[in-house]
Design a protein that fits this description.
single chain, 6 helices, elongated
Length: about 210
């Protein structure tokens, strides 16, 4: 089975490294080019203007693909473990996979339809990506607890649940603040109306 193949653990590690590199590289280029302010910009702002937009779109699409592969491996691993332990239903495992794939699709939409080019589609993609991501990691945390103590330690489960809680706490204010801004632009003057809401949204998104 794919999940039991040697070296398959490299895929999630590669996902983290590649995604981090995508955000950092596009951020550095955008700041050096003067396209964004260095202080907590939107992730999407760092991939809006050339040349960083091409790098951002290319690398995030690959991140989405790596996310799909990682989640499918996780799905297969749980199915394999469940054969002997029966700690979760197959339908719950499949539902979690589908939510995760929705999040990866949202990432692809964000990378393909950039913030200023097609803002409505971009915003829908971001909402799907972040929302599905929060639900996915929460479901995986619950599944991890169900698999204890045979397949997971409680320490690992607590860490996963802590990440889930932090993600939920950051996601809700991000949506609230973003909805109050109701405009898409990346050049904001310090004294401009709603700039504080913009900064609050950026902080919660980066969290």
């Amino acid at each position: 089975m794919l999940c039991c193949m040697p070296g398959v653990a490299v895929v999630p590690a590669l996902l983290v490294v590649w995604s981090s590199a995508a955000f950092i590289i596009s951020y550095v280029i955008a700041v050096l080019a003067g396209h964004v302010e260095p202080l907590v910009p939107y992730i999407s702002d760092t991939g809006t203007k050339p040349p960083e937009s091409g790098i951002f779109g290319f690398m995030i699409n690959i991140s989405a693909l790596l996310g799909v592969i990682t989640m499918y491996i996780r799905y297969l691993l749980i199915e394999k473990q469940n054969e002997s332990s029966h700690f979760v239903t197959s339908s719950c495992n499949m539902f979690s996979l589908c939510i995760g794939l929705m999040g990866c699709t949202g990432m692809g939409i964000v990378a393909t339809f950039q913030e200023l080019a097609v803002p409505s589609v971009h915003d829908i993609g971001a909402l799907v990506a972040f929302g599905s991501g929060v639900v996915y990691i929460t479901l995986q945390s619950i599944i991890s607890y169900k698999s204890c103590p045979q397949w997971n330690t409680y320490f690992v489960c607590h860490i996963r649940m802590a990440i889930s809680v932090i993600s939920c706490i950051a996601f809700i204010p991000m949506i609230v603040f973003a909805s109050k801004i109701s405009m898409t632009k990346i050049d904001w003057a310090p004294g401009e109306k709603r700039v504080s809401l913009r900064i609050s949204t950026e902080i919660h998104e980066d969290s």
